[in-house]
Write a structure and sequence with these properties.
Blueprint lengths: L6 H7 L25 H8 L14 H14 L3 E5 L2 H10 L7 E5 L4 H13 L3 E5 L5 H6 L5 E7 L11 H11 L3 E4 L4 H4 L9 E5 L13 E5 L11 H4 L10 H5 L3 H14 L5 H11 L2 H20 L4 E5 L9 H7 L7 E6 L2 H11 L4 E2 L9 E3 L11 H7 L5 E5 L5 H13 L3
Parallel strand pairs: 2-3, 2-4, 4-5, 5-6, 10-11
Antiparallel strand pairs: 1-7, 6-7, 8-9, 9-12, 11-12
Helix pairs in contact: 3-12, 15-17
Length: 426
């Protein structure tokens, strides 16, 4: 029945279905472990023959319901919650890559992901080539190597707010026969479903719009079940896993092989586990996802139009502005709206931008993004300050850029706050 529900209904009632006299709201199972009646039954759990929780590092009933909800929203075959969005990215990659492998990744991804790819993965022996996502299909394919094992991009780039050309990326992935992984954080399942456009694995920082209230860290990996892992490139999913009774994930779990291995192998060994309490809060927040995203999109477009026409604003980027470079892609892949994040520059450059930010009263300066409350920051001096000037340029981050995460407040109050701040730097 649930698979026929619209996404708004899934957000409110998906995954958790209480039986007679059970709690109407998904309970918080704040327990590390679970009791079993017999050794035989617990053994079946360890042998991956029985899908019930035995230790919260691997599974928890509260987290399980959240996983199933997001999985259903995205249309996947399975999902795995993690302790943060960065944990989701790390685990999703390390589930299939090892030293000696190579990644092709969009250069306009979140600064933390950029550093993870170019520093931490490099230290682990995984090579990464960053490229301009606006490059032609042919030029991207030329970057592939015999050891290339993954293509990575973001639906909406952070902070450049560029829109991913799914058709092109999917074609590249198919031509070089590697999985296509997409960070769908800014779009959420409500605005975009990457599996419909050729993605194989989706990741989220649920700390952002899915939670929606900046109250709970978390991440999510969703498996589309639509990639042929038995193509000779991923023996870790095909050959027996000697650390887990010699199981072949592809042979035993078929289309769910990737997500089962992520849980049974990498999560077991690395422990990037979602807190049950955070899963509880995230699930509560997700119940209004569809309502909030409509308001975020509405407010962001109004603020983008306001800034575009303001004498103190030198430029503004938002995909739903008709003259934006990514307008056509946004309409194609984000028909409900282009999310709630935009960027702009203030007349006077970096220093004027800082003074503008310091003068805001309603809109806060925070390092977070994509929650109900409006916020700003200057990426070059905060989230991307670890990058060199050349890396900043490759990411599209200019020194004067201000990232504006538009909340769900009354837009007239947001405009009034911007007006008083602009007046202080004229």
């Amino acid at each position: 029945m649930e698979e026929k529900w619209n996404l708004g209904t899934q957000a409110v009632q998906g995954a958790y279905r209480p039986k007679n006299a059970e709690a109407r709201v998904l309970p918080l199972y704040q327990s590390t472990t679970y009791r079993y009646d017999t050794c035989e039954e617990l053994a079946r759990v360890f042998d991956l023959e029985q899908d019930t929780p035995m230790y919260t590092r691997l599974a928890n009933p509260t987290t399980d319901a959240l996983e199933k909800k997001i999985c259903n929203m995205e249309g996947g075959v399975g999902a795995l919650a993690t302790s943060s969005g960065m944990a989701a990215t790390t685990l999703a990659v390390l589930n299939i890559l090892k030293a000696g492998d190579h990644i092709l990744a969009s250069s306009t991804i979140y600064g933390g992901s950029f550093t993870l790819f170019t520093t931490t993965f490099k230290d682990l022996g995984i090579e990464v080539t960053m490229f301009d996502p606006d490059s032609s299909k042919e030029d991207i394919v030329k970057l592939a190597k015999p050891n290339t094992k993954l293509l990575f991009g973001e639906t909406i780039g952070n902070p450049l707010v560029n829109v991913l050309d799914f058709e092109k990326f999917s074609a590249v992935a198919k031509e070089i026969d590697v999985p296509f992984m997409v960070d769908n954080t800014f779009a959420t399942p409500y605005l975009c479903n990457p599996f419909k456009y050729g993605a194989n694995i989706i990741i989220h920082s649920t700390s952002k719009y899915i939670d929606g209230h900046a109250s709970a860290l978390g991440g999510m990996i969703v498996d589309g079940g639509n990639y042929n892992w038995d193509n000779g490139k991923f023996p870790c999913l095909v050959e027996p896993d000697e650390s887990y009774h010699g199981v072949s994930y592809v042979e035993k779990f078929g289309s769910s092989a990737y997500i089962v291995k992520a849980r049974a192998n990498v999560m077991r060994n690395m422990g990037m586990t979602a807190s049950p309490f955070n899963s509880y809060l995230t699930n509560l927040g997700s119940e209004t996802l569809h309502l909030r995203m409509d308001k975020h999109c509405e407010n962001a477009l109004k603020m983008a139009e306001y800034l575009k026409n303001h004498e103190m604003c030198t430029w503004v980027k938002y995909p739903y502005l008709s003259d934006n470079k990514y307008y056509d892609l946004a309409k194609k892949y984000l028909p409900k709206g282009a999310s709630g994040v935009l960027t702009f520059g203030v007349k006077g450059g970096r220093d004027a931008g800082r003074k503008f930010i310091d003068s805001l009263k309603l809109v806060a300066l925070v390092t977070h993004v994509s929650d109900a409350r409006s916020s700003v920051l200057q990426p070059a001096s905060t989230t991307h300050r670890q990058l060199s000037d050349d890396e900043l340029i490759s990411c599209g981050v200019s020194p004067d850029m201000i990232r504006f995460s538009v909340g769900i407040e009354d837009v007239d109050d947001l405009i009034a706050d911007f007006e008083q701040a602009f007046n202080k730097i004229k």
